[in-house]
Specification:
With about 625 residues, the protein is α/β, with parallel strands linked by helices. Helices cover about 20% and strands about 30% of the residues. The strands form eight sheets. Strands 24-25-26-27-28-29-30-31 form an eight-stranded parallel beta barrel, surrounded by five helices. Strands 1-9-8-11-5-3-4 form a seven-stranded mixed beta sheet, with no helix packed on it. A four-stranded antiparallel beta sheet has the order 2-13-6-10, with no helix packed on it. Helix 5 packs parallel to helix 6. The longest helix has 22 residues. The N terminus is likely disordered. The chain binds beta-D-glucopyranuronic acid. Beta-D-glucopyranuronic acid (BDP) binds next to loops.
Length: about 625
């Protein structure tokens, strides 16, 4: 208890030092609704060319760079800085971004917010030289109220200081002492630690008198009647509101009565069109706030009516077993790094559909929000993952507490942000967490019994939080080879990443597939839950061939994938197979990463198909017809 208190005090102290007393911490609830443009709300996208400057010595604040940076260079936002400059590929320390904008006169009587969709890893924001807020964490948005800092009829300066240092107290972790990962930069994961403002920065306005702060839609159905439960939260004091659901010949309106700022209604939708990959039926949802009968705010979104559950063998969508065919992916592309690149996103959906896939996991962090809208429309089942990759339960207790804190924050931010997407059927709270005392999944001593229990309890807390925030979806984590299996007690689906025949018994696909087969049987026998292999694959140098399959050739990749898919097809309790990876991607440098790339893509990094992509296309499309 005493220790907990000390840790908490140190943590609070750390935050004050790190963020400065005047910087407010971001509130996760403020990102619950994506900014939209309609008659009551406005959005001003600040994407474009910004000023940029390195701050290697961290002197920017004492030299007041927030009053304007001098001798700056030019950077594109969104985009990762590591790709844009010849001297900054491995630079992960402090930098400053700056832009200026006028704010429309029409926003004068509104709340004005800034939303940064991704500042990896920590960010401090100033407006017109005044501190506004601080956020820690990668690939999740944050928002701050700027209303008090705006200047009218003149440019407003927005300064954002960002760094992405790899450290054991962060999630994902990096620079862990004694780590056996062995890569540079020394991240505890293989994808490249792309840094900076990877996604758009927008300003947006919300009506002054009252605005819709959150909308949570939960769906169900009985017979041919769909049920949409809507929980609407307002800020301010609108007298009442209404919600309208329309689509497929129906237009259903219900009034909203608020008590302590929240209204809760359930709407019956007759002759429901259920959402599924075969029929991604979406209904329009309009939420309005009213004052004396006059509309004062409106939020527009969509919903797909569907349920998700499991039985012993399968994930059930709308009560029927589904098989998840697809990939683990990355947001990764030449020149943009991890930056938002909408044509690449559209192409990826095109190619996934071309292979016959119906699903993907947002490995290893939440993606740009456009992905989820697209998945809703295109009928993809998504496993939404937090940035909890390479999570360890070793280190000192302060680091442990810091990691737990940020994991809880990520789960909250992820669920607040993505909860209304019918495509998202499962939350993944961590990829390959390890209970070893040291880092390096394959190295390091196992922890003592007490330490293991502590790790289990901490991990269980994350599951409980996810279930509390969203009782309607499945919750899982992904287990690592040779990792703890007792943690599967916590999950709805047993998900494992396996490379038998690649990292072990390299080149021997037959032995590898025997091992995965036995292991799947054992896991299912023990836990009686549906199983899926969330990663399996082989590095493949596009254009390398051999008559007899040999590691790194296209033939080997096809045989490896085929062997694993055949094993899965023989087991009725396997509910999905995700190939690692959709496309080759940039990594830190390591002996196992030729040229600084993970080459397990079935497409090359520039999206050309390897033989395996053609193989999947013929196999998965044939299966769809059977
Ligand atoms: C898995 C990780 C994934 C790696 C993959 C690999 O989850 O991020 O890229 O191994 O080694 O353990 O290719």
């Amino acid at each position: 208890m005493k220790l907990k208190l000390i840790i908490a005090c140190v943590l609070v102290g750390w935050q004050v030092v790190a963020s400065g007393a005047e910087f407010a911490n971001a509130k996760p609830k403020d990102i619950a609704l994506k900014p939209i443009q309609n008659s009551y709300r406005n959005v001003l996208d600040l994407s474009g060319i910004w000023k940029f400057k390195k701050d290697e010595k961290n002197i920017g604040e004492s030299e007041k760079w927030y009053n304007g940076i001098t001798k700056s260079r030019t950077i594109a936002v969104p985009g990762s800085w590591n790709e844009q400059f010849t001297d900054m590929r491995d630079y992960l320390d402090w930098v400053w971004y700056e832009t200026e904008t006028y704010i429309p006169e029409a926003w004068k009587n509104e709340h004005i917010y800034i939303r940064v969709d991704d500042a990896t890893y920590t960010a401090k924001v100033w407006v017109n030289g005044e501190p506004v807020g601080y956020h820690e964490g990668c690939h999740v948005p944050f928002a701050f109220d700027l209303s008090a800092h705006i200047k009218w009829n003149q440019p407003n300066r927005i300064s954002i200081k960002v760094e992405n240092k790899l450290s054991p107290g962060r999630v994902p972790t990096g620079n862990v002492p004694g780590s056996s990962f062995g890569n540079f930069p020394n991240a505890n994961y293989d994808f490249f630690p792309y840094s900076g403002l990877n996604r758009p920065v927008v300003l947006y306005s919300l009506p002054k008198q009252a605005y819709i702060h959150d909308v949570t839609l939960r769906t169900d159905f009985e017979g041919s009647t769909g049920k949409v439960n809507a929980i609407v939260e307002q800020k301010g004091k609108a007298q009442s509101g209404k919600i309208t659901i329309s689509g497929y010949g129906e237009k259903l309106t219900q009034s909203l009565q608020f008590s302590n700022g929240t209204a809760n209604v359930t709407i019956d939708v007759p002759n429901v069109q259920l959402w599924s990959p075969e029929n991604p039926a979406l209904y329009d949802v309009k939420v309005e706030l009213l004052d004396n009968g006059k509309v004062i705010d409106e939020y527009d979104l969509h919903t797909g009516i569907r349920t998700v559950s499991t039985n012993e063998n399968s994930i059930l969508l709308n009560g029927k077993p589904v098989f998840l065919k697809g990939f683990g992916k990355h947001e990764d592309f030449p020149l943009v790094g991890r930056g938002t690149a909408l044509p690449v996103m559209v192409k990826d959906f095109e190619l996934m559909k071309w292979t016959g896939a119906n699903s993907f996991r947002t490995t290893h962090y939440p993606y740009d929000e456009e992905f989820y809208d697209m998945a809703d429309r295109e009928g993809f089942m998504v496993i939404g993952e937090t940035p909890g990759v390479g999570l360890i339960f070793g280190g000192d207790s302060l680091e442990l507490e810091q990691r737990q804190e940020i994991c809880r924050q990520y789960i909250t931010e992820l669920i607040y942000r993505d909860k209304n997407h019918p495509s998202v059927i499962m939350w993944c709270v961590a990829n390959e967490p390890s209970d070893k005392a040291k880092l390096g999944t394959f190295g390091g001593p196992r922890k003592t019994k007490e330490e293991k229990q502590k790790a289990y309890d901490a991990f269980a807390e994350n599951f409980t939080l996810a279930k509390e925030l969203d009782p309607t979806r499945l919750v899982m984590y992904v287990g690592v080879m040779m990792g703890p299996t007792d943690w599967f007690e916590l999950t709805d689906v047993i998900a494992i990443n396996r490379y038998w025949g690649w990292y072990t018994t390299p080149g021997d696909i037959e032995t590898g597939s025997d091992v995965i087969s036995t292991e799947l049987d054992r896991l299912h026998r023990k836990f009686k839950k549906p199983c899926m292999v969330t990663e399996f694959g082989a590095d493949t140098y596009a254009g390398m061939h051999a008559v007899q399959p040999e590691m790194f050739t296209e033939e080997f990749q096809v045989e490896f994938i085929k062997a694993y898919l055949d094993v899965a097809a023989s087991k009725p309790f396997v509910t999905g197979m995700h190939i690692w990876n959709f496309a080759d991607f940039k990594t830190s440098q390591a002996v196992m990463r030729f040229g600084g790339y993970n080459l397990k893509g079935v497409f090359t990094r520039d999206r050309k198909p390897k033989m395996a992509a053609h193989y999947l296309r013929s196999r998965w499309n044939k299966e769809a017809k059977e």
